[in-house]
Amino acid sequence: MTDLLFRDDPYVKSCEATITAVNDRGGIELDRTVFYPMGGGQPGDAGVLRLPDGGEIVIATAIKGDGADDVIHVPAEGQEIPTAGATVTASIDWAKRHSHMRIHTCLHLLSSVVEYPVTGGQISDGKGRLDFDMPEMTMEKESITERLNELIKQAHPVTVNWISDAELAAQPDLVKTMSVKPPTGQGQVRLVNVDGCDLQPCGGTHVANTQEIGPVRVRKIEKKGRQNRRISIEFSD
Fold it and tell me: By CB neighbour count within 10 A (0-12 exposed, 13-18 middle, 19+ buried), where does 155 fall?
């Protein structure tokens, strides 16, 4: 099990860690990490593992391991990987991570502006999208853009708390996603609360205040099926 530092503080950019295992494909496991593993539509973090002798292992991405809290750090090809027991400094590509945080929080705002069940979503550097289960598009790009930027400027705090599996089961309306259900069975579920705007289970990383997102715009709205509408957003600054 890996101590997931990003879960409680997504602004931690690096940490000291010990390599606990290296799998047969070269994937590296650490006892603690700041690297978010790919999941929930959010890409895994990239970065480096710095060795005490000054050498670096470039990490192309991070993915989930077999256990609920296991993270596999995937090195770029052609590198020599140290063995278990080695100490490293794990550092993420902060500019890319922060971009993901801003977009992810904005997608939570989008799900509150467009009040339909979410059927899918994806985050990338500087843009993202949500798919909605809706028969007809009743809002224009301009009106969604205007509403999103209003909420961003209102500077809503973003906080995290935990509830039990039983509490989540008693509040099914908290789950907005149709295709991906929040992980249960661990005893508790992580909730992300955009104060006054949105509350839902989420394991991703987010900014501390909506104002940090910055200006955005709806890039396009697409029809992806009889009852599926895709809304794509991007930074406008």
Answer: exposed
Whether 102 and 77 map to the same domain: the answer is no
CATH number (domain holding residue 78) = 2.40.30.130
Do 45 and 35 touch, CB atoms closer than 8 A?
yes
104: nearest Cα among 222, 6, 223, 17: 6
**N-to-C CA span, the chain:** 40
Closest CA to 83 of 29, 15, 45: 29
Taking Cα atoms as reference points, which of 126, 132, 68, 82 lies closest to residue 102? Answer: 126
Task: For residue range 98-108, list pLDDT tens digits in order.
Answer: 999 999 999 99
Question: What is the enclosing helix (H) or strand (E) of 141?
Answer: helix 141-153
Domain boundary among 25, 59, 92: 92
Q: CA torsion 185→187→190→191, rounded to 10°?
A: 100
**Which tens digit of pLDDT belongs to each residue from 150-161?**
999 999 999 999
Q: The domain containing residue 80 runs over which residues?
A: 3-92
The count of domains in the chain is 2
Tell me if residue 230 falls in helix, strand or coil. strand
Share of the chain above pLDDT 90, in %: 79
Cα–Cα distance for residue pair 137/204, rounded to 1 Å: 28
Query: pLDDT per residue over 125-169, tens digit each?
Result: 899 999 999 988 888 999 999 999 999 999 999 999 999 888 888
Can you say whether the dihedral through the CA atoms of 177, 200, 94, 24 is positive or negative?
negative
